[in-house]
Amino acid sequence: MKRFAYTAYNADGKAVLGHTEAETRQEAEDHLRAKGLFVDEVREADAATTSARAAGSGRAGGLKQVAVFARQLAVLVTSGTTVVDALAALEKQLTEGAWKKTVSDVRRRVEEGEPLSEAMNAHPRSFDHVTRSLIAAGESSGKLAVMLDRVAALARKRYHTRSAVIGALVYPALLITVSLGVLAMMVVFVLPRFTGMFESLDATLPPSTEALIAISEWTRGHWPWLLGAIAAAVVGAVVWIRTPAGKDASDKVVIRLPLLGSIARSFATAATARLLGVLLESRVPLLEALSLTRDASTNNEYRRLLECASDAVERGENVSAVFERSGLISPAVVEAIRNGERTGNVGQILTHIANFIDEDNEVLVKSLTSILEPIILLVLGVVVAFVAISMFLPLFDLTASAPGVG
After folding, report:
1. 44 in the Ramachandran plot: left (φ > 0), alpha (ψ -120 to 50) or beta?
2. Which of 60, 95, 302, 347 could form a disulfide with 297 if both were Cys (CB 3.0 to 4.6 A apart)?
3. Averaged pLDDT of the chain
């Protein structure tokens, strides 16, 4: 049994924090829902605090805010509170800032008679197309609370996925940074001291030592140009990746890299399946669901796949056939979708697929991190050992050839 920390809300909309034991996160969530709680977040107890720190800010922070906002709004609407009063209550508990201004403007627009989905249209950076479409579907079907709950679950899952990836990369990135710093210190400060010593002793240097000394002297003589070139390369790469051609090329490369490519495809498949599944379960028409999922995709290869799927559906073809031809979706996932098309429950099947892949991805990220850490340390150790041996080898030779030695 694992111990999970959770954040949930009761029927009155009050936050409930605590711990529970279960075999899996899904089992823990089911247990909490059975107790009448609206689950906001469930994490393994040992990871509950570190992941939030590692999650960073920006868009992920927006997802977290939307998840909490939608969950609390769902609780209040379920309890019989009107949307306007619920928004007013949520607005009061927020501190001053951009998010409070957003909620305040949404509340004002709803008070003036706009539907909630239309009020959210004025803030596309906070509420994306998918969120607004789900809310609109809830308003038209009379199941707003249900759709708010789905919005919260979807935003929370996307937030957790990004947090897990970022958190897993923090330590390897730190190791690489420290490694480069150590090497730079040795080249700039340590090697010059040995160089002066060797010159005073008129020692014959092995090729490895001469190469290191040459690198050290060149680096110290050209460091402004070197730093400028590195900075220009980094800025240029970032700018290029943000262009349509650069984004397209980088997306193609990422999903085809050895090992990392399969991981990238796995995460993209899970995100696609989850979003498409939620939309279909919410009775969003298939073509619209494919379009919304395409717009939300961060990888151009998957955007093209979903565009092809939309065209195929218009021609009367099944989505599973397009996914199978693409090579981006695994055969097992394609077969599950095909079965869902036969039985008419594609949305539910896609959601189950996403849950299954997400669980595998969590294990995969942890495994990859545990593999990368010793590899980075090993490479650092080999490089430092090479530098040390190259520097001390001439001294050993001088000592061995000195009169009276041996």
Report:
1. beta
2. 302
3. 83
